[in-house]
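wait is this the right file?? whatever heres the structure
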């Protein structure tokens, strides 16, 4: 991997026991160590005993080995996985209120359609829009919305899972007579 291809962030998927105070312990660990959390998302898994925390950490502020070592010291941590962006699927949600008077509304609506976003609410001089997708797609959408004037913006932070492996289907030789 070249320097230009090197990731700027570590994406960690941390499976923890679903108990009160776990998120606070994880966040305080990062704060004590001076690690910059770029994004943090947490929710219960399909097993109510566990929650999954997706933590995106700035590579420069946090040596991966040290982060994992410190996280493993926390009792409620069950498993830590670093997700490589090339072999995982990342998603995020963006909601924004954008200035859109009568002259610009059509342009903003076109932009929403191009990105497959949604209009959530319409005001007299603004629109509330949302977009779910890969973080880079949201970055591009946000950059284009800035030209119209963003009144308010909120992003959820990344959630990620490993991509599913795909095996090429194999053809099985069929024994029989050739016609």
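ok assuming it is, sequence goes like this
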């Amino acid at each position: 991997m070249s320097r230009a291809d090197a990731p700027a962030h570590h994406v960690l998927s941390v499976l923890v026991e679903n108990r009160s105070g776990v998120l606070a312990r994880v966040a305080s660990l990062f704060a004590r160590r001076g690690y910059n959390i770029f994004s943090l998302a947490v929710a219960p898994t399909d097993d109510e005993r566990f929650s999954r925390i997706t933590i995106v950490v700035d590579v420069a502020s946090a040596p991966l080995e040290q982060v994992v070592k410190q996280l493993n010291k926390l009792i409620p941590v069950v498993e830590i996985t670093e997700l490589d962006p090339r072999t995982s699927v990342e998603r995020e949600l963006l909601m924004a209120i954008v200035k859109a008077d009568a002259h610009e509304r059509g342009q903003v609506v076109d932009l929403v359609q191009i990105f497959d976003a949604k209009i959530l609410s319409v005001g007299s001089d603004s629109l509330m829009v949302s977009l779910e997708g890969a973080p880079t797609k949201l970055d591009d959408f946000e950059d284009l919305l800035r030209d119209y004037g963003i009144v308010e913006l909120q992003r959820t932070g990344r959630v990620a899972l490993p991509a599913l492996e795909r095996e090429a289907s194999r053809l099985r030789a069929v024994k029989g007579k050739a016609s």
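The longest strand covers residues 88-99. so i think its the right one actually
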